[in-house]
Structures
1.
Amino acid sequence: MSEALTPEEQKLRTEFNDWAAHGKGASMARHHRAITERMFARIGFAPGDRVLDLGCGSGWATRLAAERVGPQGLAVGVDVSDAMIAQAADAESPLHNTRFVASPADHIPWSNNFFRSVFSVESFYYYPDPRAVLDELKRVLVPGGGLFLLMCLYTGNPNAKSWIQQLAVPVQYKSTEEWRALLADAGWADARIEEFRPDPADKEPDEHAYACLAMARKP
């Protein structure tokens, strides 16, 4: 049985189902592939790993992770948008080590201590109760498992305020230190931040080249 959605979660589902209908899943892959590859280098996937992509959208990053963990591994994508999940599940792929599930972020339908790492690309700031989501992620991670939250929408990105004005849903607009403190206060170990910045030589940098990568591990 699927988890009942709160009014806030239903609003997110409606918004991102609309994104799916207008093909925005593909644009997410185009804009965020480069910084996602940088995050993957920090994760350090190993063959056979079990990994979770939270807020997976159309599943593009889930499939990239599945390539890295190999046929003995598993990459699971979870998203509140059932339309995005349908697109992810329908995407043609030679991989057989992916699973896609429509569910709110604070009710992940998976067993305790299962995943070696959890990552999220451009979704964590949408969650109305980030502390509840962090507690749920801690539940499904193995002890020592890694958490990696990649966000372009944060106070250090000069483009972020204009993005917020275009969104139909509220967001968590935080600084790097606020994100680090949130992880530490939620009981995560080794909470730290890495900022990605455009190449200074680039006269017209991509607005998505600014990113905050919040990292921690389950004690």
Note: The chain has a mean pLDDT of 94.
2.
Amino acid sequence: MRSVREARRKWGYVVGAGLLALCAAGWAAPAGAQSAATPEEYKIGFTTPLTGTNAPFGRAFAETARMATDDVNARGGVDGVKIRLIVEDTAADPKQGIAAFQKLVSVDRVPVVSSAWSTVIMATAPVADREKVLLINHGANAPSIRGAGKLLISFFPLADLDIKHLARYAATKLGKKRGAVMYVNNDTGRLNAKVFQENFEAAGGKIVAVESHEADAIEFGAQAAKMRAAQPDIIHIPSLVQEAPRIVKQFREMGIKAQFTSYSVAESKEMLSVAGEAADGLLYTSLAPPADQPGPKALIDRYKATYQKDPVATAYLMYVWDLHNTVLPEAIRYAKKQGWGYSGEAIRRAMLTQKTYDTKASGKTVFEDDGTVNKVVYLKRVNVKEKKFEYAATLD
């Protein structure tokens, strides 16, 4: 309860007040239907888990978005008009995500909402279409997000980009023949697993075991026993930040020697502290440049100086920063210049018309016509001895 109270105080949301405000607003007309006149401020909604098991990551996302917004406003905003970021809690839960979105739309009247977590994005996309509000995914990678809504932009690359390359690399470059998958039973895990399996087998490998687990699970002995019996030489783990390290640790404790692979959730302090030596050599995809490159390093240093702590899930933070510090301000400015006004439809049109953005932290961004992005895919390795995540290869 204390964490909930602290989150509400820090981020300025109160669930009860939000619900009352919704009633008072009478579920007003869509926020997307705004005039072409320049507003007094550009409101942008931001939904993220501030409570629940994913709160440490959700808070880091919100902190990065606030830092990016403050930076834009310090530069004069968008042609003299400042941006106001309004943050709401989803607890990474689809139903609460919809409630947070509706509050932002009906009470705060935002035409743009930035969000993450695949189940939240999928649940919210139809509501965004109905309300004519642009929904931007800054951190979910389920391939099903593509085409889930007409007013949905996926600024974060989807799993069928990086996992496809990873699976093929595992079979052709690493020479692995017997693959297995241990996935979290949600959209992210299921679809990530499907992409890996299809592409691994297409590249000449064979999937010999597939196991799953529920979110928030802590015991994986039963799955480990089945994996050990199947004798894979590589195990792909599309799980979650909290669960993946425990899976790695428990699988090694069961005597499994296979190469482990994952995606960007592997780059977390939990992987080092919880999995420990068991995680050494784990390979994972990253859709952001190595942290020692100028763009990422500048963001990490800025975060540390601002919040007096190390960032978590830095690859995701790079996307949050680039979206709120570069892409959205430029799209708002472009839409204004074209006389399109500030609406969800106008900002989506601007983003897909401009297409290419010089995003410093995550690397150059190119939007596809379907609202997804094309990015360079990096392969990184967990180095437990040196307590770092190091560059291994570029996948194409």
Note: Residues 1-29 have pLDDT under 50 and may be disordered.
3.
Amino acid sequence: LQTIFITHEHLDHILGLYTILNELSDSELEIYVSNVTQKILAQGNEEQICPRSLGISASAFGVSILPIPISKTHALAEGDTFSFGSFSFQVMETPGHSPGSITLYESTHKLLFPGDVVFPQGSFGRYDFPGGNLSTLTQSIKRLTDLDVEVLGAGHMAPVVRNASQQIQLSYRNISSMRW
């Protein structure tokens, strides 16, 4: 294991990170996160990582939320690009589900990894967690409708491997119909 990309700071996306860091403490592991997520992890901000409103705690999974030094992570921001093998990804800041949400887009292969911003079948991420916001999430999903996406690898649910742009459009229509 050499590289980890984290789309946002919620427990279900970073829980294993603490174990990995303990097991590979001396390794050259590279962890990429948004600027916002980097700060939340550095603070060990448990309310942002595992909101009490969920009715669970990190300790229920045998994990303690501890500060992760900024030196252990690399911050990604809007417009950053990076190569991973033969893929060249663009970073998009897509808050709304969480303040630190980022989406990774690969235009040549038409791949999108939106974390919990958008899901198949017209679904989208919750916005009722600390730092979440319906209006902001709607704007983030709107931005994704402008992309040519064939494959959608969302943070939950099965991947969409064909015509994923249609799924994103449906998610946008659904969230746009909600009252703010």
Note: The chain has five helices and eight strands.
